[in-house]
């Protein structure tokens, strides 16, 4: 079955089937049924503009609740979903569900809230990705500017021409294209110039030890200036405490995401979070 779907799935079927391999196969077979069984759920993490004291976006983060495996983290199943090609229907579900949720939030009065979805490399091969996204937006009455797609450098590297073609089409539709985990790859600057990014997300590894690391301060400061010069929005990820917030603020970083502001929450909790709001959110 997996063989037909292509990818590098062969590597799982070697004779030395140890326990790890068996678990992987088990997980893979569970993953085939996960959509039908409605085992996926989206969590949302707020992005805050600290100058406006406002929640400007929600990043959708997928969760898989399996009856036997329990909660499986995306880093543990997204690679399998990519390998098997299941990422296409799963990714489509993520876009559909997050747009549906965002249009509910718009109806509740949060009329300029954006929702961000993560797109992985293999999703670029989805034949009608752009068309599918456009349809989902129309169906939910959501204008394209309220959807962001987050792409990592590593997913561009796999097929830069295809990535460029698709990202350009998404950009032309008015969708916000963001580079995720910025700074962890190796040729980000060239990509920033060649690809239609409007936003960069500074990876959390630069924020983590900010207080002791002169290097991290220098890198973040440079990225903020770079963003300004290239007319890109800059978001810092992984803010966990007030000290990091202060340091980032001093570096003129205005948009932030992290446990300090809010952990990823289910839709209901995220709606309450919006309601408690930082001032300025309703419009
Ligand atoms: P990401 O897009 O870089 O998402 C940020 C990750 O950092 C999330 O982990 C989030 O829960 C976590 N995080 C946020 N704030 C903090 C913080 O203050 N401290 C710490 N230590 N962590 C923080 P999560 O939800 O486990 O997702 C991991 C990765 O899985 C994501 O990284 C993204 O690459 C991928 N992913 C998640 N959902 C999807 C999806 O729907 N589709 C695809 N293709 N990938 C997804
Ligand atoms: Mg992301
Ligand atoms: Mg990230
Ligand atoms: Mg990541």
From TrEMBL:
Domain called EAL: residue spans: 24-278
Position of the signal peptide: none
Name of the featured protein: EAL domain-containing protein
The organism of origin for this protein: Cyanobacterium stanieri LEGE 03274
